[in-house]
Backbone:
């Protein structure tokens, strides 16, 4: 369960145990801990910024639960289907703790089943996808360190200072399942590219760049498309270095094909979106806490909006103020107005207001004349 991991060019070495801790005789692996940390960070981000994307935090819980569970199942199914070896039993196929989750399988499953859950819970799909894309970058950036503890997902030989070596890398490179570009020779006794580290850094840099862009986004889905482009470009390059790639054919790597298709598709959609919404300001509807009352109010209560460029504090304050107005909204008065309208009386919707009218201020009394007069 332990590996001596060395970085000869840097003069560093680490004794790594794949098991983080044990509970009741059950070993908890660092691989799972890293994924869990990434998931927690993604959840914190999503709940912290959901209002800025027009997503209701309460409704989002069900979407996240379904997306995460089915996303993990999809990631494992994708890996098992594409693995360059055969599993001996169903138990080996579901042994996620030992590693073997295909990121693109998780992305596809997360977006697909998460999108269906959005439809079910009435959550806006594209804004939720934007939040999810940011969460993916955090989760992937952290989760890749699980590969470090498992000593997997590394690349071919390198002479760079950060080249990595361990008995686990050596044993794998001596096996028959190694996949490398044509013409590339592998020496199991030499350091290899720590490609898990490359992808982790790539994801964190992408998260930082997109976080800076959030307030400038032009349309719903903008962040999602930029995520697909950023991650796809990095994955295409990194996948070319790896020695454990899942293959479509003997020469075509699965993740490179998926990355190429996703980047090309996202670029086309992004350009089309930017052209369509050129010069427009994205407005984000505020989230309503009492949907039943909103439905009952009908057209007599209008949901407020803020520009996407507004600060988090502005979203929180405006949302709280709007929901206070909704709670104070008089449904009986709205029904009376509707009844009068049905009787043929002309009544403007503005006569029914979400916030009680404030009494008009009394006019200021005239200032007393100077006793001496003029």
Residues:
């Amino acid at each position: 369960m332990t590996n001596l991991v060395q970085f000869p060019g840097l003069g560093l070495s680490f004794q790594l145990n794949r098991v983080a801790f044990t509970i009741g005789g059950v070993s908890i692996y660092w691989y799972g801990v890293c994924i869990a940390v990434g998931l927690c960070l993604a959840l914190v981000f999503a709940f912290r910024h959901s209002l800025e994307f027009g997503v209701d935090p309460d409704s989002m819980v069900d979407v996240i639960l379904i997306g995460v569970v089915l996303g993990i199942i999809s990631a494992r199914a994708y890996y098992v289907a594409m693995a360059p070896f055969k599993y001996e039993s169903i138990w080996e196929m579901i042994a996620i703790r030992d590693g073997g989750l295909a990121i693109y399988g998780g992305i596809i499953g997360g977006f697909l089943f998460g999108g269906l859950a959005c439809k079910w819970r009435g959550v806006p799909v594209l804004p939720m996808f934007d939040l999810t894309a940011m969460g993916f970058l955090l989760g992937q950036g952290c989760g890749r360190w699980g590969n470090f503890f498992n000593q997997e997902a590394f690349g071919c030989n390198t002479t760079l200072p950060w080249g990595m070596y361990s008995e686990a890398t050596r044993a794998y490179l001596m096996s028959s399942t190694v996949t490398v570009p044509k013409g590339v020779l592998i020496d199991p006794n030499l350091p290899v590219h720590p490609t898990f580290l490359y992808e982790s850094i790539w994801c964190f840099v992408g998260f930082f760049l997109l976080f800076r862009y959030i307030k400038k986004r032009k349309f719903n889905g903008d962040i999602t498309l930029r995520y697909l482009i950023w991650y796809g470009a990095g994955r295409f390059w990194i996948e070319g270095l790896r020695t454990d790639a899942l293959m479509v054919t003997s020469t075509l790597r699965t993740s490179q094909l998926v990355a190429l298709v996703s980047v090309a598709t996202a670029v086309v959609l992004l350009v089309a979106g930017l052209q369509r919404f050129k010069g427009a300001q994205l407005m984000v509807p505020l989230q309503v806490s009492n949907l039943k009352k909103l439905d009952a109010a009908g057209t007599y209560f209008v949901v407020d909006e803020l520009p996407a460029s507004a600060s988090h504090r502005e979203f929180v304050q405006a949302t709280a103020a709007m929901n206070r107005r909704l709670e104070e909204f008089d449904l009986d008065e709205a029904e009376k107005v509707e009844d009068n309208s049905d009787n043929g009386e002309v009544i403007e919707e503005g006569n029914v207001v979400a916030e009680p009218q404030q009494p008009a201020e009394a006019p200021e009394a005239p200032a007393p004349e100077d006793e001496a007069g003029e």
Confidence is low (pLDDT under 50) at residues 346-374. The beta strands are 2-7, 12-17, 19-23, 26-29, 283-285, 305-307. The longest helix spans residues 57-82. The longest strand covers residues 2-7.
